[in-house]
Amino acid sequence: MTVEQSLQLRALPLMNAAVYLSLTLLIIIGFVLYSDWLTRGAIALLCLLFGVVHQYGFPAIHTTRQAHGYFVVQLVLITLLCLAARSGDPFNFPFYILSIQAMLLYRPRVAAGWIAIYYVVGCVTVALREGGVSPVYFLFYLAIYLFVAVYGYTLRQAETSRQHNEQLLAELRMTQAQLQTLAVAEERNRLARDLHDSTRQQAFALSAQLGAARSLIGRDPQTAERHLQQAEQLADTLREELAALILDLRPPALAERPFPAALRQYVNDWSQVQSLTTQLDIVGERLLPAQVEGALFRIVQEALANVGRHSQAQTVDLRLVYATDQLTLTVKDDGQGFNSQQVQRGLGLHSIRERVQALPQGKLILETMPGQGTSITVQCRV
């Protein structure tokens, strides 16, 4: 991680609070330990300078050279503070703060170099002032600096992971929005196909029958009457198909209720519109991924729309079976059936196949023959 990539790591309220609280405590300790105002003033001034450099210098770092300059200035200030206080403890505490900041800004190897400098300068300052110290002192503070380095590295990794997760979340939201846009576009395309393949043709046929009746009404009333009867039948068919399309345009049913309940409601509404007898059986219902439920709901809509437009059926049986690792959906009608080898455009099978292919290991089984009804079975892994 470069210095430029680490800038967001600096917006850490706890670290800022720790810096200012530590400096305040050092000033108080200086006033308690020392009675002469010269030492008190020097300690207070150096602490204030450290705080000012941190406040305005740390956020302004954008290059490695600026980072080095910042740490050199702070190193000098802390060294002078320790010399002015004539004691390393606790006035070398800002070295720990700088160690954490170095770990946040630099790569671990460079940060370790700066931490080593702080350790050496702190120990040498104490040794020169005290005239020598015990080796235990060096080992003790070495352990502290190692702990601080590990803490800074852990903080760096946690902050980096948080930023990465936020980026992934933003990308996920963008992808979700794109998928929603694609789903809306696909639904519009499907409705456009339905309107073109069936409703539009019915409207053209209705217009042709009315035109023929109008031209014959004066000289051949009986033939004109037949055309009007055919026009009336076409108008009824057109009304039913438009009603089915209106059902598809309702707000997403799955957002309002669980999938089985939404499916039962849709089948019931469709049955009333089409005036057909329907039977829906659901076995072993349980929660499924939203994507699978949405695809199955649309498949049922497509299959029932196909029955209403083309089958001339009297009854429709639907069965949804939840197994341990497989789900099976069957839509069967007793209509006129068709030759599956000569499927014409407008039967909606292409759209159903596309939705089945989007399911996990989706499989579509079509069974039909002229005069023997139609059965559509969808299987997928769950």
Description:
The chain has 382 residues and is α+β, with helices and mostly antiparallel strands. Among the domains are: 4-133; 257-382, 2-Layer Sandwich (Heat Shock Protein 90). The protein has helices spanning 13-33, 37-57, 64-85, 94-105, 108-130, 135-216, 221-248, 259-274, 290-311, 349-357; strands spanning 277-283, 315-322, 326-333, 363-368, 374-381. A five-stranded mixed sheet has the order 1-2-3-5-4, covered by helices on one side. A hairpin with a 3-residue loop joins strand 2 and strand 3. Helix 5 (108-130) runs antiparallel to helix 6 (135-216). It is rod-shaped, with a radius of gyration of 39 Å. Mean pLDDT is 82; it is low at 4-8.
Descriptive tags:
rod-shaped; 382 residues; alpha+beta; 67% helix; 5-stranded mixed sheet; Heat Shock Protein 90; 10 helices
Structural class: alpha+beta
Order of helices and strands: HHHHHHHHEHEEHEE
Task: Give the overall shape.
Answer: rod-shaped
Percent helix among the residues? 55-70%
How does the SSE layout of this entry go?
Elements: H1 13-33, H2 37-57, H3 64-85, H4 94-105, H5 108-130, H6 135-216, H7 221-248, H8 259-274, E1 277-283, H9 290-311, E2 315-322, E3 326-333, H10 349-357, E4 363-368, E5 374-381
Parallel strand pairs: 1-2
Antiparallel strand pairs: 2-3, 3-5, 4-5
Helix pairs in contact: 1-2, 2-3, 3-4, 3-5, 4-5, 4-6, 5-6, 6-7, 7-8, 7-9, 8-9, 9-10
